[in-house]
Design the sequence.
């Protein structure tokens, strides 16, 4: 399975992986699965942390950077696709993640019910 963690999943994986649903945690832990982190999630966490809206460990970014997870840059194609998505979701970070999942053929790991409004495979429950 090829997974893309949404920002909430990346956050929970870092601070309290037991808070993830069992199916998501098991899929992320399975070394046979390719797990991907988007640069958009690093950006979103950084912004929320700077605004004091997120309790993030000092070494949180380093943990993610040193993990076995593949790091995915945001490309111009991702940006164009995110902008062209139907307006079911206003969060620009989630729109980029949805576009990345579609373009890269990844299953999006996240709880947001709006993900189901798009043509993207999801995993959470």
Sequence:
């Amino acid at each position: 399975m090829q997974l893309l963690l949404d920002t909430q999943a990346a956050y929970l994986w870092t601070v309290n992986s037991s808070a993830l649903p069992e199916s998501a945690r098991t899929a992320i832990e399975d070394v046979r699965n390719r797990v991907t982190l988007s640069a958009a999630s690093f950006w979103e966490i950084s912004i929320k942390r700077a605004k004091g809206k997120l309790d993030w460990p000092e070494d949180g970014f380093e943990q993610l950077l040193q993990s076995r997870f593949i790091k995915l840059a945001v490309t111009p194609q991702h940006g164009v696709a995110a902008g062209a998505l139907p307006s079911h979701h206003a969060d620009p970070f989630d729109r980029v993640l949805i576009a990345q999942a579609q373009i890269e053929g990844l299953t999006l790991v996240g709880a947001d019910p709006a993900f189901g409004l798009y043509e993207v495979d999801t995993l959470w429950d």
